[in-house]
Amino acid sequence: MQRLIELFFEKPEILITILSGFLMPIILIYLNNKSNHGLKMLDKEIEIKYSDINNLKNQERSVYSSLSKILFDVQQLHVSLSGTCVDENCLNKAITKFDDSIVKYHEEISNNLLYMPSKAIDLIYKFSVVSRCN
Fold first, then answer.
1. Domain total of the chain
2. What region, left, alpha or beta, does residue 85 occupy, with left being phi > 0 and alpha being psi -120 to 50 degrees?
3. Within 10 A of 77 (CB to CB), how many other CB atoms are there?
4. CB neighbours of 15 closer than 8 A, spacing ≥ 6?
5. Helix (H, G, I), strand (E, B) or coil at 19
6. Which band of pLDDT confidence, cut at 50, 70 and 90, is reported for residue 50?
7. pLDDT by residue (tens digit) across 55-66?
8. Burial environment of residue 65 by CB neighbours within 10 A (0 to 12, 13 to 18, 19 or more)
9. Entry pTM
10. In whole angstroms, what is the distance from residue 84 CA to residue 65 CA?
11. pLDDT tens across 90-99, in order?
């Protein structure tokens, strides 16, 4: 060890050669890998953020389409009940069809309410109550 230290003092260019030829590339590789790791983590965060937004939009579309279908069914029920159909069987058939579709679309809505904001959920339930009362 003593001989090695004396060699560095006698010939300092050996130390510079070792640093520039061996340690410098290792340091550069380490810094490059650290930078790449940071970029990969940032990419993952962005991907997660945008995939959540796309999932939320798909769920909102599904809920919106279910609500639109319920509204259409309410209109169909109104037409059926206010038409010339006076037969009790005809009325029961229209109400049964409406009830079946309401159950189906409420299931679709409830499957997609998981990530919806609470304000939207309140509005959906208010719509559901009004559509059942009418």
1. 1
2. beta
3. 20
4. 8
5. helix
6. low
7. 778 888 888 888
8. middle
9. 0.52
10. 30
11. 778 888 888 8
